[in-house]
Design goal:
The chain is α+β, with helices and mostly antiparallel strands. It is built from 10 helices and 11 strands. The strands form 3 sheets. Strands 1, 2, 3, 4, 5 and 6 form a 6-stranded antiparallel beta sheet that branches. Strands 7-9-10 form a 3-stranded antiparallel beta sheet. Bound molecules: 2-acetamido-2-deoxy-1-O-phosphono-alpha-D-glucopyranose and magnesium ion (MG). Magnesium ion binds next to loops.
């Protein structure tokens, strides 16, 4: 409540309670007296986001751009609430806090339970990208090389060499999963580096739980968790959503037989996404769209395993080998995508006639 008092909230703060189970930040919901709005207050993870002020500049710039273009500016994007001193964050004892308006009449999902939801999600992210297509202010790179697999491999090599958690010796098989795909992933990324695949404003963390749906219509209201809004390839937003929406199991499923890619979900998400982006994506983006699911899922396997090797510094863990469980479950998903890649390609072709 002391921290909440630092923000320019309307009404008297009545209660603050924990919300959700993000892997990175700590999130709270702030209830106020009478008819004043409800707010979201977050302690931003300073280990993950070394420059919170610049991250908040990115978020404020992108959300104000979107506000100028949508019918319901207070519901169709986040509204950053500044601190009482006018800054976009409050710094308290080395921790960085930020706040935004809670969007009434919204809901979010941990998993996609229907094709319709996947279609809506795809259309929502497509629209998010379209709304930002003419956003030209350069964005700060708030996490270096976030979806840049060349940079991720640099981190990976250093992590394996350092072996901080003393776990490398027992991970020969899992490390082999990463190494056997190194060249292929770098080859894809070189297309982005060479400009063959263009760079645009992207969300970079489009898993289903980062999307708000209208609780009446189930249409996408907006993308939330804008911490990673940066310049990258649109493909990453598609790929990360495919990683999340199509998984028949949980991201950290211990029962690997539950994990696979549901191709119908893939089709539904692609239909929604392409209904918004079909005419604005380039030929090379369309050619690599299906692969982006594989790319981002591979990257996620690498990131979970790297964090396990590092001794669990990045992701919050609920039990000691949680990052290894996540690694294995995401690897099972990756294998399922790889085996269905020809079908994924065909679906994109059918939807676009490229
Ligand atoms: C993190 O912030 P959250 O929990 O939505 C992570 C994503 C991962 C995801 C895996 C800043 O997302 O990149 O894909 O966990 N965010 C950051 O569930 O690293
Ligand atoms: Mg999130």
């Amino acid at each position: 409540m002391e921290i909440a008092a630092l923000f320019a909230f309307e009404g008297e703060v009545e209660s603050v309670s924990q919300l959700g189970e993000g892997f990175i930040n700590d999130t709270y919901i702030v209830h106020t007296a009478g008819s004043a709005p409800t707010y979201i207050l977050q302690r931003k993870n300073h280990y993950v986001f070394p420059d919170v002020p610049r991250m908040m500049e990115n978020i404020a710039a992108v959300t104000s751009h979107i506000k100028g273009k949508v019918a319901e500016p207070m519901r169709q994007t986040l509204t950053v609430i500044p601190a009482r001193d006018g800054k976009l964050y409050a710094e308290v004892e080395g921790n960085f806090w930020a706040a935004c308006l809670y969007i009434e009449g919204s809901q979010c999902y941990d998993r996609a339970d229907s094709l319709e939801l996947a279609r809506q999600g795809g259309a929502g992210i497509g629209r998010f990208q379209t709304l930002l297509a003419d956003f030209t202010t350069p964005l700060h790179e708030t996490i270096k090389g976030f979806h840049n697999i060349r940079y991720r491999f640099e981190q990976w090599d250093a992590a394996v060499a350092a072996d901080c958690g003393g776990r490398v010796a027992e991970l020969a098989k899992e490390i082999g999963w990463i190494e056997s795909r190194r060249e292929k992933m770098l080859t894809f990324w070189s297309l982005v580096e060479n400009g063959i695949i263009p760079t645009r404003v992207t969300h970079n963390d489009t898993k289903i739980s980062n999307i708000l749906f209208d609780s009446q219509t189930n249409e996408v209201l907006c993308a939330i968790d804008l911490d990673t809004v940066m310049s990258s390839t649109s493909l990453n937003d598609f790929g990360d959503a495919i990683r999340s929406y199509t998984n028949t199991g949980a991201e950290d499923d211990k029962d690997l037989d539950r994990v696979s890619m549901n191709i119908d979900m893939f089709r539904a998400y692609a239909e929604g996404y392409l209904s918004e982006r079909k005419d604005t994506l380039t030929q090379s983006e369309l050619e690599w769209l299906a692969f982006s699911g594989i790319y981002i899922t591979f990257e996620q396997v690498l990131r979970f395993l790297m964090d396990y090797i590092d001794g669990d510094k990045y992701y919050k863990v609920a039990y000691p080998d949680h990052n290894l469980v996540r690694t294995r479950a995401q690897y099972r998903l990756l294998q399922s995508m790889e085996s269905q890649y020809p079908q994924m390609q065909r679906i994109i072709c059918d939807l676009t006639f490229y």
